[in-house]
Amino acid sequence: MQLGPSAAGPVEITDAASMRAFSRERRARNQKVAFVPTMGSLHEGHLSLVRHAKDRAQIVVVSIYVNPTQFAPTEDFEEYPRQNKEDLRKLKEEGGVSAVFMPKNLYAPRNNRDSGTESSESEAEAEDDDTAAASTSDHQTWVSACKLERPLCGKTRPKFFRGVATVVCKLFNIVEPDVALFGEKDYQQLRVIQTMARELDFAVEVVGCPIFRVADGLAMSSRNALLAEGERKKALGINKALSEAAEEVEGLNEGDEVGAHVLCNLVRSTVEKYGGRVDYVDMVDERTLRRVKTVRKAKRSLIAVAAFYRSKHEGQEVRLIDNKVLGGEGSPGEARALKRKVRNLERELRARDHLERENAELRAKLNRMSRPFGFEGMHKYQAARKSIPVKTEISAEKNTAAARNSGFWTVARPSEGTHVGRRMRVLYDQPRQWFTCEVIKESPQGVLTVRYDADGVEDEIDMNKPDFKSTCKFL
């Protein structure tokens, strides 16, 4: 059976049992599963999430499901773009996707009512539900992160995040991923899901990824396709307004602050000037989403905006949202991406050819020394890193004053067998995953021989390598 991505394209799965079995089989083989939930009509923003997922796991699952419980009866559920064949083509071209989960319905159908009393109960429940699924579903269980749902979009869409949290909870239970990726354009949604996963003890790492923008700055959204002719140019006012607010904060001196209402009024004015009808503009704490009164350059705040534009469907509007982190270091996703780049650069600098060049330069500097020496007393990577000479003849258990004064460095090694029998975790980059193993042998030079639990393979790990402490943890 094909366990990873197939050249023929991703496996198409439509029922929950098959999806759960697919995921469990991969995880049983120590393959990490990354999950990208979508409502279809895929664009470059979605594909950027897929690329982030491929960096984090061997198995990538994408779901396509237009969730009716996050649409009010007056919203664009029926008009929401659906193009499954085109979406599958894009995922196949992107490559690296193992499965696409496309359920037909994730909510219990309203088909078990047979008495008059039950029928009236059904109608009452439908009135209380007030979503696009109300007339067709018997669903009674909902997930809600109350405090995070109330501000921003929750003011005008009171049932929206309840529907989002519920469907994502269902998808997490079905797909059983190790990591799930969401775009930061829907920042409030991201915080709701992160809170839900933490408080309901899902074994899922919920990761936010930076907003993907087209060249002119418009945030990618499936709803962009619903804009009437000429409205897209008006929608550019959203990013323009957010950028102006960011410039105001960047121009502050350390310790200065600006009123949140000043920045919100600036954003509102620019969006309206470009032709948008503002739903809300608000400044909140990026973690709690509580409204803030002032903004400082050194403290992170989130300014969020929602605005309406004319739809290509007669008499309807398209609601677009966007946000920007002001102050601090940019969005959390951007900060994580930058840290990842730094880590990769550090690994590159510690690569073998780099250290060998360092060794060659070090040897050239030591020609002045009368006595021969080598790097046998210390691992050459360690010697290169310390940039100090190592004398083979001096192999003491500790550094002596004479050795230090003469410019020679001696190495103290733990006695053989110090770590034998201990268990440890080792971090691999490709894939980026921790593997558990047991130390079965240790050399005087600090090289461990380990046996991995997953497949019984033996390998050697050098404790002298610069990244040993960050990639190997004793249990």
Overview of the molecule:
- This protein is of the alpha/beta class.
- It folds into four domains: 11-106 and 141-209, HUPs (Rossmann fold, 3-Layer(aba) Sandwich); 222-329, Pantoate--beta-alanine Ligase, Chain: A,domain 2 (2-Layer Sandwich), CATH 3.30.1300.10; 330-367; 422-474, SH3 type barrels (Roll), CATH 2.30.30.
- It is 35% helix and 20% strand.
- It has helices spanning 16-28, 44-56, 84-94, 116-129, 146-149, 160-175, 187-199, 231-250, 260-274, 332-349, 352-365, 380-386, 401-406, 468-471, and strands spanning 11-13, 33-38, 59-64, 99-101, 179-183, 205-209, 257-259, 277-285, 294-296, 301-310, 317-326, 423-428, 433-442, 447-452, 458-462, 472-474.
- The chain has a six-stranded parallel β-sheet with strand order 1-4-3-2-5-6, with helices on both faces. A five-stranded antiparallel β-sheet has the order 15-14-13-12-16. Strands 8-10-11 form a three-stranded antiparallel β-sheet, with helices on one face.
- Helix 8 packs antiparallel against helix 9 (260-274).
- The two termini are 35 Å apart.
- Residues 113-122, 367-376, 383-404 and 406-416 have low confidence and may be disordered.
